[in-house]
Amino acid sequence: MILSAGYGTRLKPITDRIPKALVVYKSKPLINNQIERLVKAGIDEIVINAHHFSDKISEYIKSRTFRIKINVIVEEQILGTGGGILNAKKYFEKEKSFLVINVDVDTDSDLGDIINYHNENDWFATIAIQKRKTTRYIEFSNEMILCGRVNEKSSGENLFAFNGIHIISGEIFSQGLEIKYIDIFDLYSELIKKGKIIKGFDMGNSFFKDIGKMENLI
Asked: Shortest CA distance to 163 belongs to which of 106, 125, 110, 81?
């Protein structure tokens, strides 16, 4: 799944006329780069959620021929990174697991590494992380089990930045979670309270860029 429903506020004024997913980076719209990345990783079907200028995303996908089946979910009311995933139930509820990636990240890491790690260990969810500076750290136990979000002033030892990639169990749709606007890490907090294990996967020194920032479009 490619999370593409956001307003792209940090990319204004470009996103005053087009969705973030269609902002050009490396000579292609962001959504193209993610589709190609997922195809390379062996993904055989993609779900894209859309809200801000959703009609433009739908039209763009329909006007192109991709080597993979692509489904677009239009959110009439934006649901956030957590609610957007729950809203894709009909596509993923029968899957053992599925991959989620933000539309605005660029990385040279091999998605196969985190997919294999998750499949070998069968955690409820595995999230890609990295030791780099951020304003929104994620804290883990010594066993690399997710504890939750913390701010940049936290003094915890196992603090990492999130790389915008998850592998999530299809069981998430049977946990009685309400489809509403919610951040994925608030959703993970609810799952942790239910005893679910969310593990961090360190992407090491791989290249990572948050393309949701204007200065990073270059």
From this structure: 106
- The domains located in the chain, with CATH, are 2-216 (3.90.550.10)
Question: What does each C-alpha distance from 193 to 75, 80, 98, 122, 126 come to in angstroms?
Answer: 28, 20, 22, 19, 17
Pair 48, 5: CB distance under 8 Å: no
Low-confidence winner among 4-13, 74-83, 150-159 (lowest mean pLDDT): 150-159
Question: What is the rounded CA–CA span in Å between residue 176 and residue 182?
Answer: 14
How many CA within 13 A on the CB side of residue 209? 12
Contact 161, 131 (CB under 8 A): yes
Q: What is the pTM of this model?
A: 0.95
pLDDT digits (tens, 9 = 90+) for 117-163: 999 998 999 999 999 988 889 999 999 999 998 876 666 778 999 99
Q: Is the confidence at residue 4, as pLDDT, over 80? A: yes
Q: Is 160 within 8 Å of 129 (Cβ atoms)?
A: yes
